[in-house]
Amino acid sequence: MIEFFGSGKRMSRQTIALPHMVAWYWLMGLMASVLAYLLAGGEAGKSALWGAVAVALPNTFFALWLMLRGRFPGGGVAFLLGEALKVAAILLFVWKVTQLEPHLHWLPFLIGMALTAKAGWIGLLLTTFGSNHGGICCRTDGV
User: Fold this and answer.
1) Which residues pair with 2 in a beta bridge?
2) Is the per-residue pLDDT at 131 higher than 60?
3) Nearest to residue 54, comparing CAs of 25, 93, 85?
4) How far is the C-alpha of 63 from the C-alpha of 111, rounded, in Å?
5) Which of 23, 103, 32 is nearest to 60 (CA)?
6) For the chain, does the N or the C end have fewer beta carbons within 10 angstroms?
């Protein structure tokens, strides 16, 4: 059981839907790249997409790691190992993109990375406290 934000509400680990959070990473990355494409053209859109993929792909594998590790005891060490591998993969991906993409626009690239990274928090908020759990977002009971 997990208690969130000192609210006194206790929820099982199944409440946190990792696949929904991963979907938010990819959705936010696509939205960032489409917005960059509409505002600044094709190269900016492609750069934002590279930034989104640089964050979303390692986070997808990290979520898979967490789902697989949930079946086996591992504790905090397994989580920290997965987090370290995720950060290393993001840095490696960024370095590789700079080598492969000669017309990379840095501002859309970094904005795509930042928006995609923050999408996990949105996904966590909506899946943990959403309408299925009587939380603060999307309530249907008239409150």
Assistant:
1) 11
2) no
3) 93
4) 22
5) 23
6) C
Residue with tokens 């990792």: 18
User: How far is 33 from 45, CA to CA, in rounded Å?
Assistant: 5
Residue 123 CA to residue 143 CA, distance in Å, equals: 22
Region 70-90 average pLDDT: 79
Structure-block tokens of residue 127: 């899946």
User: Cα Rg for the chain, rounded, in angstroms?
Assistant: 17
Q: What is the pLDDT of residues 38-70, one digit of tens each?
A: 999 889 999 999 999 999 999 998 888 777 766
> Residue 112 in contact with residue 36, Cβ under 8 Å?
yes
Q: Is the dihedral of CA 30, 86, 121, 107 positive or negative?
A: negative
- φ, ψ of residue 10 to 5 degrees: the values are -110, 135
- pTM for the model: 0.72
Domain boundaries, the chain: 11-129
Strand blocks (E) in the chain: 2-3, 10-11
- Report the pLDDT averaged over residues 119-138: 61
Sign of CA dihedral 132, 24, 114, 2: positive
